[in-house]
Specification:
Elements lengths: L2 E4 L6 H12 L2 E4 H10 L3 H12 L5 H13 L5 E4 L5 H13 L6 E6 L2 H17 L10 H15 L1 H8 L3 E5 L4 H12 L1
The structure holds adenosine-5'-diphosphate.
Length: 190
């Protein structure tokens, strides 16, 4: 089973993706995590994307599609795509890559939330990390957050119509408690 999680930054994609890895044995593919790893390991690509990410803009399709292609080439099946695709070009590329492997997408789950909650969640996440002496993401500040939200509405939200047209879209209430959201997703997938 291959599942896509859609929703703006702070909607809870990462949290629900982790739950799905535990409950269904799916492998989480988070392009955000892959890009942060590349940054931390100081690769050429990591250095190039650091600035773009800190601003809250999207990294080029070429780079993220390349990262996903590499992961899929390593084999296995049953993926949960978290933060990918984020543009129509990425969605088309994912469809083709899975097609080549004789696989498909089973569902695109949209986590529905409103912007005020997102800002509170992300600012809260940064404050918690700071208080615990943990590193704070360079893009968890008010200005980058505005850019991230804008990128979502402009570039990623068209994917809702894209997957709806394919009959794959399912929406859940992302404002509910974590366990309730997980239960709603589980019910949709069964
Ligand atoms: N599929 C993608 N396409 C382009 N850029 C991406 C993609 N995934 C992640 N990024 C980059 O990484 C940043 C962080 O993404 P992510 O960890 O998914 O966090 P969030 O969903 O909270 O914004 C994005 O703002 C963007 O710069």
């Amino acid at each position: 089973m291959n599942i896509i999680l859609l929703g703006p930054p702070g909607a809870g994609k990462g949290t629900q993706a982790r739950i799905l890895t535990e409950t269904r044995g799916l492998v989480q593919l988070s392009t955000g995590d892959m890009l942060r790893e590349a940054q931390a390991s100081g690769t050429e690509m990591g250095k190039r994307v650091a600035e773009v990410m800190a601003k809250g803009e999207l990294v080029t399709d070429e780079i993220v599609i390349g990262l996903i292609r590499e992961k899929l080439a390593q084999g296995g099946q049953g993926f949960i795509f978290d933060g990918f695709p984020r543009t129509l070009a990425q969605a088309d590329a994912l469809g083709r890559l899975l097609d080549e492997l004789g696989q498909g997408i089973d569902a695109a789950i949209e986590l529905r939330v409103n912007d005020e909650v997102l800002v509170d969640r992300i600012v809260g996440r940064a404050e918690q990390a700071r208080a615990a002496g943990q590193p704070v993401r360079a893009d968890d500040n008010a200005e980058s957050l505005r850019t991230r939200l804008m990128a979502y509405y402009k570039q990623t939200s068209p994917l809702i119509g894209y997957y709806h047209a394919k009959g794959l879209l399912k929406a859940v209430d992302g404002l509910a408690e974590i366990d309730a959201v997980a239960a709603e997703i589980a019910a949709l997938l069964d």
